[in-house]
Amino acid sequence: MKQEDLIQLVTLKMPYGKYQGRLIADLPGHYLHWFAREGFPPGELGRLLYLMREIDHNGLSSLLTPLRAHATQSHD
């Protein structure tokens, strides 16, 4: 895992499905767990969803808070 991966979690939006347009970091835990049961999509998106599921499952979502602030400032 690289810092860039974490930044992507707070900047990349889900491209399809029920939560299309929502940031990966803001996807609900039950949705991430569904992917864990059913299988993550291939490629970069699947890798990031897996990472977010691990962060959520281990109660580490607060680690993304400073990155959210940085990402917001970078886009201003």
UniProtKB/TrEMBL annotation:
Q: Which Pfam families match?
A: QSregVF_b
In which domain of life is the source organism classified? Bacteria
Q: What is this protein called?
A: DUF3820 family protein
Species of origin reads Methylophilus medardicus
The opening ranks of the lineage are: Bacteria, Pseudomonadati, Pseudomonadota, Betaproteobacteria, Nitrosomonadales
